[in-house]
Amino acid sequence: MRQCAVAIQSLKRLDGDKGNTLHHFNTIFQGIYDARGNVIPHKMELFRRNIKHLFIMIDEVTGDESGVEFLHGLHTFLAQRELLNSPSINTKIIVADASIVDPKVITRHLSDTAYEPDKIYFRRVPSVSQEQPLPLSIEVFPFRNEQATVINANAYPASKLYVSYKIGVDALQYDEETYTERSKQLSTQLQQHIVKDITDLLQRNDVPQLLVYIQDKQRLALLIQAIKKIHSTFEAGEDYLEIHANISEAERESIAAYRKKTKVVFMTASASRGLSFPEATHILIDIPHFEVEQNLMEILQVMYRGRGGERDQEEKKLIFYLTDRAVYTESSDRILSVRESMLHLLNVLIILKASIMTRIAGGLNIGVDQHFMVIPIGGKSVYAAGETFTSRMSKLIKEAQTLSRKTFADKRLNYVYESLTQMLEYVRISLRPMGTAQKPDGIDRVRQHYIPLISSFSHDFANSIRKGFDHLLQYPPLQRSHIAGSMLIVPIVNMSMQEAYWIQVEQILERDTSKEYDLLAVMQELSHDRRYPESFHHALKDGIALIQALKDMAEKKLPHYEQESSYTDQYYAFPLVTFLAHETMSQYFSTKGEIQEDSEGMSFRALLGMYVRTLYPSDSMLPIGRNYDEFPFIVFRSLNLSEARSKMFTGKYLFMSQEFNIINMLLSSDE
Predict the structure, then answer these.
(1) How would you classify residue 128: left for phi > 0, otherwise alpha for psi between -120 and 50, otherwise beta?
(2) How far apart are CA 453 and CA 580, in angstroms?
(3) How many whole angstroms separate alpha carbon 473 and alpha carbon 452?
(4) What pTM value is reported for the model?
(5) What is the pLDDT of residues 18-40, one digit of tens each?
(6) Are the C-beta atoms of 70 and 10 separated by less than 8 Å?
(7) How far is Cα 317 from Cα 207, in angstroms, rounded to an integer?
(8) Distance of alpha carbon 605 from alpha carbon 611, whole angstroms
(9) pLDDT tens column, 191-224
(10) Are 613 and 117 in contact (CB under 8 A)?
(11) Is 624 left (phi over 0), alpha (psi -120 to 50) or beta?
(12) What residue spans of 371-530 are helical by DSSP H?
């Protein structure tokens, strides 16, 4: 009797027109079906004789935004091929995910593939200490018209678990001259506390290994540098490991070699999945301040990375670090500001502990006779396939920047980042009509575009108000758009986008001759450097091809590089204040030149990108550079923006980072 085991982690796009990862199942079973998908009887009979058990596992279905769609696609594939309920083949779909062990949550989250943001599910439960089932339980329930079984095996791998919280609040009165430097003190002091805790634990013989979770790669690099100043022998591999989302081949080998030997394991977001460290007895976690729902998932996963050995029968310790800054303008507001900050921290800690205890014991008692199950769940979304060449270049620049912050010693990374950014810094993005503009909803006048109105809007609006509010009705209809906070987001409909780049390739290459680096040679070297991940190697090949093409353009004296694209899921966005302060913005950008960053090195382009990503699943962001002529804007793609807006506020889940309030849960109904 033979068994067939297939293990796949979530849905991935494939190159060209091959679709997605489910395409591989057609390859596996292609000999059993004809070109039309019909079963070939004698082939199926041969398959059944040889394969009695078909187990298909999906790992971390909530850890990837496309996981739910993959599960549904897999279910449909097996049902269409008569493999799901075959009398002669034992087919099982195994969804391995510790985040969801409650049948009601599973049904609610996995029953359909429609977009949902990251969220925190909750529901009231019977008394946790008496009626609530313990972990290591089995429950049968219906799912998609099939019998399903949920196995909860979430007991924590320790004889006892000690949890400590280290809280810091900085009450800061705003002063324009001193605010920037003063606001850095809290971060500096937090870093010092973490360094001291790590160095103290390193001195102890009873601490074989500790895990440290810090999401910010740059902060982590600075933390490691600070420890090295105290411990001169603190070396990568033997003394510590760094684990990030993108792991190179060399890093994988180092992890395999030192996983049980190294003293400290540093982790960042999404890095811990699939890895375990059986020697770890202490876990230090720095709680980030943004995207609370997603970060709670990360924290729970990090907690369970210290497992898999004899130390699962020993005591273990968790240390959480959480800080907040209370900023006030008047001295009389100080007490209120501090109280609000403390309330925010208390909210975070309650939800954190409730999430931990739900994973370990099925829920948490909050208040008097209040028992809750709290489960953070990742969102559901699939990113659009297909990218422009410049969007791929943007990803290369971003990855080079990220790696340069992580690896200070390799100056080539920052050199590539700065050179490519400078090459693609100057761009003019324009929108061109495609065919005839639509006249919506019976309105005879064509909808006007926002951008031509920006320079005169403030003046025209004020004049209309002076004449009477009824004059506002004379404004022509505008493009359909969305307002999200302080941003205006406009779909690019019936238009194509043209990018024209005034390339600085000659200046860059001439500059190379006077320096120790040659850009092309450096990129070639990095594309084969095993210390860096494969994704970076592939992106570098795009970059090398671009530079070769730009060199040819420079030799032919072509003035600029142009690219035109059109996607139905493309949008542009800019701050609403642009309409009111266009003249001020224009003056600012014209005088700032190439220095369009704040005192902490954050550009308008980076801020807009971060803002949009907190609202919607988005990618392929443009422009690449940081400079603007008149006002800041961003162009991006989002396959699920409309669905995201329709589901931003529903009663199906408890929290979104914008409205994080424990009262929502305490006032909730039983379901």
Answers:
(1) alpha
(2) 11
(3) 19
(4) 0.74
(5) 566 677 777 777 778 777 777 78
(6) yes
(7) 10
(8) 10
(9) 999 999 999 999 999 999 999 999 888 888 889 9
(10) no
(11) alpha
(12) 389-406, 411-423, 454-467, 505-513, 519-526
Please state the length of the chain. 671
Contact 383, 639 (CB under 8 A): yes
Q: Count, in order, helices (H) and strands (E) of the chain.
A: 20, 22
> To which H or E segment does residue 490 belong?
strand 487-491
- What is the mean predicted confidence (pLDDT) over 539-549? 81
* Cα R_g (the chain), whole angstroms: 28
DSSP label of 309: S
160-377: CATH homologous superfamily?
Answer: P-loop containing nucleotide triphosphate hydrolases (3.40.50.300)
d(CA 296, CA 348) in angstroms, rounded, equals 10
Beta-carbon contacts of 406 under 8 Å, excluding residues fewer than 6 positions away, are: 217, 218, 220, 221, 242, 244
Taking the alpha carbons of 188, 190, 193, 194 in that order, is the dihedral positive or negative? Answer: negative
Q: Could you tell me the CA-to-CA distances from 268 to 223, 300, 301 in Å, in that order?
A: 13, 13, 11
CA dihedral for 543, 545, 549, 555, sign (positive or negative): positive
Q: What residues form DSSP beta bridges with 488?
A: 483, 574
Q: Is 154 helix (H, G, I), strand (E, B) or coil?
A: coil
Cα dihedral: 100, 101, 106, 107 (round 10): -160
Q: Where are the beta strands (DSSP E) in 199-305?
A: 209-213, 240-243, 264-267, 280-286
Burial of 88 (0-12, 13-18, 19+ CB in 10 A): exposed
